[in-house]
Write a structure and sequence with these properties.
Order of helices and strands: HHH
CATH class of the domain at 17-70: Mainly Alpha
CATH architecture of the domain at 17-70: Orthogonal Bundle
Radius of gyration: 21 Å
Number of strands: 0
Structural class: mainly alpha
Number of helices: 3
Strand content: under 5%
């Protein structure tokens, strides 16, 4: 089982976390570790770099979701419009 966990970790490191929630949770852990302090400079620097990469991944996922929502709204927007009320006309 440890072998599977290790290969999953390697996949996440190469491609990043698979979901927004996983990336955000990992980013939270990095931030907590950095805020706690007491890390050697090299470890703090490594974690900072990892945190910046995770923040970029989260941002890209959010932008992608926003673009998808905009596409859905555009595609179905005409169907969602209410007909004008007679009193307004």
């Amino acid at each position: 089982m440890a072998r599977t966990k290790k290969s999953n970790d390697m996949t996440e490191q190469a491609e990043g976390p698979a979901t927004f929630e996983a990336a955000l949770a990992e980013l939270d852990q990095v931030v907590a570790a950095l805020e706690a302090g007491a890390l050697p400079l090299s470890e703090a620097t490594r974690l900072y770099e990892k945190g910046m990469k995770l923040a970029r991944i989260c941002n890209e996922m959010l932008v992608s979701a926003e673009m998808r929502i905009t596409q859905i709204q555009t595609a179905f927007g005409e169907q969602m419009r209410l007909p004008p009320q007679e009193s307004e006309a």
